[in-house]
Amino acid sequence: MESIASQFLHFEHVTEASPIGDGNINDTWRISVEEQGTLRSFILQRINHHIFRNPVAVMQNIDRVTSHIASSDFPYSSPAPVRTHTGELLHENDEGFWRMFPFLDNTYIPEGQTSPEIAFEAARAYGAFARALRDFPADELSETIPGFHDTDRRWEVFIDVINRDPAGRVQMSKNEIEAMFTAKPLFDQISALKSSGALPVRVTHNDTKAGNILFSKQTRKAVAVIDLDTVMPGVILSDFGDMVRTFVPDRREDAPGNVIVRPDMLRALQEGYLSSTSGFLTESEKNYLVLGGAWITGEQALRFLTDWLAGDVYYKISYPEHNLIRSRNQLSLFNELMKINQL
Ligand code: GN1
Ligand code: MG
Description:
alpha+beta; Phosphorylase Kinase, domain 1; Aminoglycoside 3'-phosphotransferase, Chain: A, domain 2; 10 helices; 43% helix; binds 2-acetamido-2-deoxy-1-O-phosphono-alpha-D-glucopyranose; binds magnesium ion
């Protein structure tokens, strides 16, 4: 840790290096260093390059987007990466690709302790993020994970893994697979909407979950939008959708049991998001925002179930059936969201 940190920073001692966060893909540490009596903290991350095949492109996207945001009227922060002493955005060694961000003191993520006020604030901040990037040329960003929200492609991968059954789990997952197929018409509707041109291509965050907004411990207001790994061209529905997926249910994405939706949270998200975006979103984008919630939840169910059937090759798991439990949770949330009559 110390030798990696020394690629980015000057210091006399590392005073702390501890794992932080509960990301499913990258490995993250908080690292604190002391230099001439001053203590400073940073986030040090190892990018999972099996998933982000081109870590350099990931960092170039983040660099471009954070500089654009810094010079726009974005009323929050989105921390820019710390460069190495030689001016690089990444340090590569035998263990992988490393990057650093400043650690924002006195902040917390609202995951698991959400309220309508928090949901409103978070949606307002994610909306401001989209607004700050509305004039950024989307085609100049790399697709850091090709086909990330390509619904048709995700279904092909799912069907392929069912046919191959590499982990021998298809038989025991019949109910979940059937429930997934019941959800298919919604995916087809989204796919048709996308190809009809009703949803313009924009720069989207693509991981707008409750855990990627930092709140101030003092003011309880949103202060920063983080985790820009998947910033790339996309449609706005997926960003609103991931907020619905993570703020509206009464439990976390891997909790067992039937999920209950909280309509007051959904209203707060709509109000917060539109308070930043109503000036530039099209009427059809506004009309379909809530549908985006069902879509992204269904897609997340599909992704977790695909990974369960593939033998847990993508998401980190904490116990053997973790991905199966996650997919059941997301299917339950999907079915509850589909009952909302705004869809
Ligand atoms: C992954 O690692 P994390 O928590 O930032 C995933 C998201 C999922 C999320 C589900 C690159 O995000 O798309 O929505 O898990 N990121 C990638 O918790 O696949
Ligand atoms: Mg992420």
